[in-house]
Write a structure and sequence with these properties.
Low-confidence stretches: none
Shape: globular
Number of helices: 0
Structural class: mainly beta
Mean pLDDT: 97
Distance between the termini: 40 Å
Strand content: over 45%
């Protein structure tokens, strides 16, 4: 059974930092590209960052470039999202996603986590 379990969310003031973690089990992790997505109330889920399964190449949404960093640890089967300089508009539920050998997208991901809430106060 494949599971993706996110953790690390919480309440933080604007300008602060959080580090999200996603622990994967039940899949050959190093064959999967991974990603972080988010969904704010009343909005569509959107891609935040993805990382490949081969060379750890990262791709970021424009609105997080320079502030967020995605990374992965294949030995621990985990993916991380370091979020710095957080803004109130970053408030959302953050989801981890996995896709076999291709970058995850909203419509094409094999597995999703249950999400972790990030709330940024002004």
């Amino acid at each position: 059974q494949v599971r993706l379990v996110e953790s690390g969310g919480g309440l933080v003031q604007a300008g602060g930092s959080l580090r999200l973690s996603c622990a994967a089990s039940g899949l050959t992790f190093d064959n999967y590209a991974m990603g972080w997505f988010r969904q704010a109330p009343g909005k569509e889920r959107e891609s935040v960052a993805t990382i490949t399964w081969t060379d750890n190449s990262a791709d970021y949404a424009e609105f997080v470039k320079g502030r967020f960093t995605i990374s992965r640890d294949n030995f621990k089967k985990m993916v991380f999202l370091q979020m710095n300089d957080l803004k109130p508009e970053d408030t959302a539920v953050y989801y981890c996603a996995a896709r076999f050998r291709l970058r995850p997208t909203q419509l094409q991901s094999n597995w999703w986590g249950q999400g972790t809430q990030v709330t940024v106060s002004s």
